[in-house]
Amino acid sequence: MKIFIKIALAAGVSLSSFAAVAAFVPNMTAAQVDAEVQRSLIAGQSLSVIAAGAKSAGVSEALLVSAMLGQGLSVQPVICAVVEVGDPKSVVSAAIAAGVAPAVVTQAALACGVDPQIVTASTAAGGPQGGDTVGGPSGLGNFGNSPVPTFTGGGGGSVSRS
């Protein structure tokens, strides 16, 4: 009888885990991903399990990170969970796009083991493309350019020496 109970318990755990993973489906809207993340959290699923389920259904890192952060979760656990199953550069960019300060994202990503070069490229000044946008994509901007002189006048006065 004890063996039967253990088998039933194991089957129940397996099915409940499968149900949480199977809840994400391809082509979900942001609202659907938000709702599914919320349901999964209420059901007690770990962020890693939620991330794996979403990724297996083809949910983008951007939607998943946004949905998790929208639930009020801390940045570092969200980044760590999604980096486990997703592209680290996309995860870092998604966190910044969700409104998290680049310094906070950098600290969290490095703590999760993301390659520092990826973090630097994704969080560099100038927007989501990194430092290549400083002064615009063509490199034109105010850096190193002299302003156009605005003075006019032709003198006309005289200097007297006494």
Task: Briefly characterize the structure.
The chain is mainly alpha-helical and 162 residues long.
Characterization of this structure:
The chain is an all-alpha fold. Helices cover 57% and strands 0% of the residues. The chain is built from eight helices and no strands. It has helices spanning 2-22, 30-42, 47-56, 61-70, 75-85, 88-97, 102-111, 116-123. It starts with a helix and ends in a 39-residue tail after the last helix. 28% of the residues are buried. Residues 17-22 and 125-147 have low confidence and may be disordered.
Mean pLDDT: 77
Shape: elongated
Give the amount of beta strand, in percent.
under 5%
User: Major sheet, described briefly?
Assistant: none
Radius of gyration: 27 Å
Q: What is the rounded distance between the termini?
A: 121 Å
Give the helices and strands as they follow along the chain. Answer: HHHHHHHH
Instruction: Enumerate how many helices there are, as a single number.
Output: 8
Helix/sheet category: mainly alpha
Q: Low-confidence parts, pLDDT < 50 over ≥5 residues?
A: 17-22, 125-147
Helix content: 55-70%
Give the beta-strand count. Answer: 0
